[in-house]
Amino acid sequence: MKIVKVEPIQCDAFWGSYTFAKIETDSGLVGYGECTDWRMPRAVAAGICDLTTLINGQDPMRIDSLLTDMARLSETAPGGVIQRSISGIESALLDIKGKALGVPVYELLGGKVRDRVRVYWSHCGTYRAEYPSAFDTNPIRSYSDIEDLGKEVVARGYTALKTNLVIPGDPASVYSPSDGIVSASIIDKAVNLIGAFKEGAGQDFDVALDINFHYNTESAIRIARALEQFDMLWLEVDSFEPEVIREIKDSTTLAICSAESVTTYREYRRFLDLRAMDVAMIDLCWAGVSQGMRIAHQAASQEIPVAPHNLWSHLATFQAAHFCAALNNVQIMETDVDAAPWRDELVTELPEIVDGDLIVPDRPGWGTNLCENAIKQYPWTGAIPAEISSES
Ligand SMILES: [Mg+2]
């Protein structure tokens, strides 16, 4: 079997573009992989095009060999955007190999250790605050509306949620200071937010807060300490410096989750060696399955659970499902419930979520295919809409 064509496919995601790699073979088998990045979609697609000459004509079953070739081609600029492009190609190759052998991808990763994966409702309230016109949902004008959202999450069967620093109002906003400094007033709002979600969903309900890269170390520590009054799933903080994450972890009783943006095992190892975080977040669209498995296996050897980062289309959810299926040390997996209204149309099979758990699919390959005709109905215009953010 030989690869005859490699191409990126993009589709409107309302906050930017979903990005996929498609690989065709001379046998007629086609593989799809998702490598969405919400800020640099053109760069990821261009990376797939740049790797095409290396991949065309090759045997798609020799995945590790092709990964080595792609890593060597990009050795002067590893990680970052090009790792997303490599990841998309790798996922399309895994899809082809699974289909060729008639097995689900998890069989290529060591076999299934679980039938279900617990998932959490991510960006809960975040998108409704940032893009109110995109959803036919109630506006978030007060903390009472946050309570109602917490009730909705429970009613829809989820057992955990993650939010960002949503500030109710008209319009609502998501706080993101340009200077990384948090004020006492914003800390109060973070406490009110988590308190309202707990009030609505229940005091035992797992709630996580993601403050991303938005705060300096001292501010992140102040937020963490203020939230210690709650029994939280985790506080999520990002930095490319493992010592920063370790300092935050050491300063608080909250569990700290981090490192979704670290996309190579070589870089990630610095975080694990330092035991910088309690939960290791891995994005399969950004790091790729091979790098992700290496990271997860080292994390397992250090008794650290992993949690896939996954806010993309359903294909990425399938990719993360197979990754989780083959690992013991998975705490929980991310999924977005509020998404582009056309997201369900883009794939042939939808993820099956029952009582807050994603059922691991057993079909060959990833277990779903892209509907290219549907994708053509939602072309990405090249626009990345502005989020509603606040510095007040
Ligand atoms: Mg995050």
What does this structure look like?
The protein is an alpha/beta fold and 392 residues long. It has 2 domains: 3-102, 2-Layer Sandwich (Enolase-like, domain 1), CATH 3.30.390; 108-365 and 383-390, Alpha-Beta Barrel (TIM Barrel). The chain has helices spanning 41-55, 63-73, 80-101, 126-130, 143-155, 184-201, 217-226, 242-251, 265-273, 289-301, 314-325, 372-376; strands spanning 3-12, 17-25, 30-34, 116-122, 160-163, 166-167, 173-175, 206-210, 234-236, 256-258, 279-282, 306-308, 333-336, 353-354, 357-359, 389-390. It has a 6-stranded parallel β-sheet with strand order 5-8-9-10-11-12, with helices on one face. Strands 13-4-15-14 form a 4-stranded mixed β-sheet, with helices on one face. It has a 3-stranded antiparallel β-sheet with strand order 1-2-3. The longest helix has 22 residues, at 80-101. It is globular. The mean pLDDT is 96. Bound molecules: magnesium ion. Magnesium ion binds at residues 210, 212, 236, 260.
Q: Helicity level, as a percent range?
A: 25-40%
| Number of E strands | 16
What's the story with the biggest beta sheet?
6 strands, parallel
Spatial order of the strands forming the largest sheet: 5-8-9-10-11-12
Model regions low in confidence, pLDDT < 50 over at least 5 residues: none
Number of helices: 12
Rg, Cα atoms, Å: 20 Å
What pattern of helices and strands is seen along the backbone? EEEHHHEHHEEEHEHEHEHEHEHEEEHE
- Strand portion: 15-25%
Q: What's the CATH C level of the largest domain? A: Alpha Beta
* Coarse structural class: alpha/beta
The CATH topology of the largest domain, please? TIM Barrel
Compute the average pLDDT: 96
Count structural domains: 2
Bound molecules: magnesium ion
From the coordinates shown, what is the CATH architecture of the largest domain? Alpha-Beta Barrel
CATH superfamily of the largest domain: Enolase-like C-terminal domain
Distance between the termini: 58 Å
What is the molecular shape? globular
